[in-house]
Design brief:
The complex is a heterodimer of chains A (385) and B (523). By secondary structure, chain A is mainly α. Chain A contains 14 helices and four strands. Classes of the chains: A mainly alpha (385), B alpha/beta (523).
């Protein structure tokens, strides 16, 4: 299992490298600090939604309405600010509240009526889109009046200046090192107590080294252009929260158990219905957050905001090693998968690839990822039989 | 008459360096029933996979001969074309299709006529042929019945009919009676004897030694991937087989029963319980009353469909609508809304199908063990990983779970070790009453003995155990009392002394109408 994950992560890194080289050669400005900074913002936005998607994919469900939801929540918030003349913070809170409500409703329908999530959220895809266009009256609603900054409009234009950015990155690297060291010490103590061989510290160290290098690279790149973008900091918080939720709480265990074997989960005393509704509600919060980010990034709410984002999120999950049947997936995998998607999308838009070819490329990527997944899981099953 | 149809010589199979088979020899003669016995993990499944071409030619060492020629199977398709059929434990039948359609699945006769017509399936012919096939072997099954409405025993018969339709020369049955009741097993065994009379060669894999002794002409024992013993059935005994399977003489399988003491207050009292499957349905359980005391193991016997599992599932809060009666658990009324309520109240259940209801197969031993008791491991809302590891380690040690690491997925464990994990999951919830449904199904002899020892220990600690089992020796060997369910009602409440196989069977048949599954005279 772990071997498989490593293979997958390695192959993803190679894909990333290939993408970088490919686009870098075709369009040298792809690797410019400015573009990489933009790419970071796009990556952060897709990732927030993908992490939400992870929460419902783990128990074996799906959400096809996320993209429409992103548009709707952004649209509602923008309209509340522009036409309702509410302060941005209040409008944003209302937007997120609406998302919580709508996704709780979808989760409730899926659980209580036992209708497949696919159908309910397909209905959501259409309904939220219609509602979205109704709310913005098919017009373009800017996120702030007359170019004045407000809390919504600055979401994607704020940067932590390079100096503090470097400090923050350094701090995170140091903290990661400390955690890694502490974890290893504890494992070693436990092994001694159980009379087992003390585990090697090499692997945790290597993992930390790779993470530190990636972070340092990120910091240096962003430092060349204004610093760390706010969406990235938001993503970091979301990722940490989702990681804790999935790996260290009962809810997280329940998500994996339901996806792995729902009947066993029920008989183990897990309130399956409640867990699934909670997962959808949490996804709703992240859809809302993505809606704010994506609309702010676009500068205005227009009918195309959020379009097809649900598929990018699902693709990021699948590329990152989630099983669509549930029970398998991780935050790190989803982040990697989302990075691949972001690199691909940003590269294509930089090269001004026509939209028809972009669709084909996205489709092929998804197909390729699914094929790879099936191949790899066959390989790992074969070695166990 | 005794010429070899299929034989293996020095077969060795490795999976990434680990030996699954380290030298297997055996020969199946034409027209004989050859039994293959061995504990779980002895290599039986691997052997079947080699015979049937799942592990293709070239992926193992040694010789595999069919009709004296090397059987170079590249796939399962090849082995089927050469007349080999494997009937697996988990039956790959299409539930929503009829018996006839399943028998002819993938080989449907087409309609006569010109091209576009000939693409259509000839449903009439399928039914006619299925009917005559079933009749020929005296299998009383309606070819039009949906498979989903059949019991496990009848499904097995459909599988066998499918193999016979295929004109299989060698039938390979993998633990065919594991999911069957005594009577269904008997029906199956008599069908097999019938097939042998017609010259069918049968390889029979089982660890129910009484069956093996009753039916096999020749017995081969596998242990640790090697064939360690092979002899005509007439020249061997059951204890000898057990010894060969385990590799040592096995002590008494069942721990001694403690002297019965005056019982303290009852843990669980059920009175006049009637339960229906759903709101509109009729009662599947009617007027069931029973008492379970601390330090007592009460066995429940009955035929398949008598309502044994339903009773346990209802007490656990996972099945049915209560129509009448009451359940008292530790002196308070027990009306669980779901399993979570029962678990909180100290009532735990281990269901009969661990793969389906008990385990998350791809997750680790640790994950599965603590799944029901995570609340006890919380530290400010988060799971305390260190405490979890300690608890897991302790329980795995107590149950003697054999695994390289507790992070190993349970999928990779043997049946016996998987069952221990399911038991351990319940024990971690601090139970007062445990409901066990077929606690040793598909578990090898060694692990069985360990599970019995554990149950005995739980009895000493004052737990109440309610145990459903189709395994008569187990039921008689472990229970302090045996209750018999027949068609949803209790028909007997016997002490350990009163409980004999005859008495149990009589009570089990008390209210049901005889419904023969196999009857050759019928036609």
């Amino acid at each position: 299992m772990s071997e498989r994950m490593e293979w997958r992560d390695l192959s993803l890194l190679l894909v990333l490298l290939a993408l970088g080289v490919f686009f870098g050669l075709l369009a040298p400005q792809y690797l410019s600090a400015r573009n990489l900074s933009m790419l970071t913002i796009e990556f952060a936005i897709t990732s927030v939604l993908s992490l939400g998607m992870l929460l419902v994919i783990l128990p074996g469900h799906i959400d096809l309405s996320a993209g429409s939801g992103v548009g709707l929540i952004g649209g509602v918030t923008a309209v509340l600010i522009m036409r309702g003349e509410l302060p941005a913070s209040v409008a944003m809170a209302l937007g997120i509240g609406l998302a919580l409500l709508l996704w709780r409703l979808q989760g409730f329908l899926i659980v209580s009526q036992s209708i497949p999530a696919f159908i309910i959220t397909l209905g959501g895809l259409l309904a939220w889109k219609g509602l979205f266009w109704l709310v913005i009256r098919n017009q373009t609603v800017p996120v702030s009046a007359g170019g004045h900054a407000n809390l919504l409009s600055v979401l994607t234009t704020t940067y932590l200046p390079p100096g503090p950015s470097y400090a923050l990155i350094g701090l995170v690297i140091a903290l990661l090192g400390l955690f890694s060291l502490r974890g290893h010490r504890q494992a070693a103590q436990e092994a001694v107590r159980q009379g087992e061989p003390v585990p090697d510290g090499e692997l945790p160290f290597l993992r930390w080294l790779v993470a530190a290098q990636a972070l340092a690279l990120l910091g240096l790149t962003c430092g060349q252009f204004r610093g760390l973008p706010l969406p990235l900091l938001i993503l970091a918080m979301v990722a940490v929260l989702v990681q804790i939720l999935t790996k260290h709480t009962r809810l997280g265990r329940a998500l994996y158990a339901i996806g792995g074997n729902e009947e066993a989960a029920v008989l183990s005393g897990i309130p399956v219905g409640k867990v699934v509704v909670t997962a959808y509600t949490l996804l709703g919060a992240l859809v809302g957050l993505t809606g704010l980010l994506q609309t702010a990034y676009a500068g205005a709410s227009t009918t195309t905001v959020g379009e097809l984002m649900e598929l990018d999120a699902v693709a990021a999950c699948v590329i990152g090693g989630c099983s669509l049947r549930g029970g398998r997936g991780s935050v790190a995998g989803v982040l990697l998968g989302s990075l691949v998607m972001a690199c691909l999308l940003s590269g294509m838009s930089l090269l001004a690839v026509p939209p028809e070819a972009r669709f084909v490329a996205r489709g092929l990527t998804l197909g390729l990822a699914a094929w790879l997944d099936v191949r790899l899981s066959k390989m790992s099953k074969g070695s166990l039989a | 008459m005794t010429d070899t149809i299929l034989s293996l010589h020095g077969v060795v199979k490795r999976f990434s360096g680990i030996y699954a088979l380290r030298g297997v020899d055996f020969a199946l003669q034409r027209g004989e029933i050859h039994a293959l016995c061995g504990e779980n993990g002895a290599g039986k499944s691997t052997l079947i996979k080699i015979l049937s071409g799942v592990h293709p030619h070239g992926s193992f060492e040694g010789e595999y001969l069919l009709d004296g020629q090397p059987a170079a199977f590249a796939s399962v398709r090849d082995s089927q074309a050469r007349g080999l059929s494997v009937i697996y434990q988990e039956l790959p039948l299409v539930e929503e299709m009829s018996v006839a359609a399943n028998i002819f699945l993938g080989a449907e006769p087409r309609r006569p006529g010109p091209w576009p017509l000939s693409l259509l399936i000839d449903a009439q012919s399928i039914r006619r042929q299925a009917r005559s096939l079933l009749a020929r072997f005296g299998i009383l099954l309606d070819p039009d019945r949906k498979v989903s409405s059949l019991g496990a025993g009848q499904k097995q018969l459909v599988e066998i009919a499918r193999a016979l339709r295929n004109r299989s020369r060698v039938l390979i049955l993998d633990e065919p009676t594991a999911a069957l009741t005594e009577r269904e097993s008997e029906a199956l065994l008599s069908l097999l004897s019938e097939l042998r009379r017609e010259g069918q060669s049968i390889l029979y894999i089982s660890h129910r030694l009484d069956e093996v002794m009753a039916i096999a002409d020749h017995i081969t024992v596998l242990r640790d991937g090697q064939s360690v013993f092979s002899a005509p059935a007439s020249q061997t005994t059951q204890p000898l087989l057990v010894q060969k399977m385990v590799g040592r003489a096995l002590g008494d399988l069942f721990p001694p029963r403690p002297p019965s003491e005056p019982n303290p207050a009852p843990l669980l009292t059920v009175s006049g319980l009637s339960v229906a499957e759903s709101r509109g349905g009729s009662c599947r359980l009617s007027d069931v009353s029973l008492t379970l005391h601390a330090g007592e193991i009460v066995g429940i016997y009955g035929l398949l469909g008598a309502g044994r599992s339903e009773l346990l599932l209802h007490l656990f809060g996972a099945w049915g609508e209560r129509r009448a009666g009451s359940v008292q658990l530790l002196g308070t009324e027990h009306t669980p809304d779901g399993p979570a309520d029962s678990i909180a109240a100290g009532l735990l259940m281990v269901s009969e199908d661990r793969r389906r209801f008990g385990l998350v197969m791809d997750e680790s031993i640790r994950f599965n063990l603590t799944l029901s008791s995570l609340a006890a491991l919380l530290d400010q809302g988060l799971i305390n990983r260190r405490r979890e590891e300690q608890v897991t380690h302790h329980m795995a040690k107590r149950l003697r779970v054999k695994a390289a690491s507790l992070e190993q997925p349970v999928r990779t464990l043997s049946g016996g070790n998987q069952q221990k994990v399911v038991l351990g999951k319940s024990l971690l919830c601090q139970p007062r009453v445990i409901l066990l449904d077929e606690p040793t199904r598909g578990v090898d002899v060694g692990a069985k003995q360990e599970i019995y020892a554990l149950l005995s220990e739980l009895r000493r600690e004052g737990l109440g155990v309610l145990m459903v089992s189709s395994d008569l020796p187990e039921l008689l060997g472990m229970s302090d009392r045996v209750l018999v369910l027949s068609d949803g009602t209790l028909t007997a409440n016997l002490t350990a002394k009163q409980a004999t196989p005859e008495a149990l069977l009589q009570a089990a048949l008390a209210k049901t109408v005889e419904q023969p599954v196999v009857n050759r005279e019928a036609q």
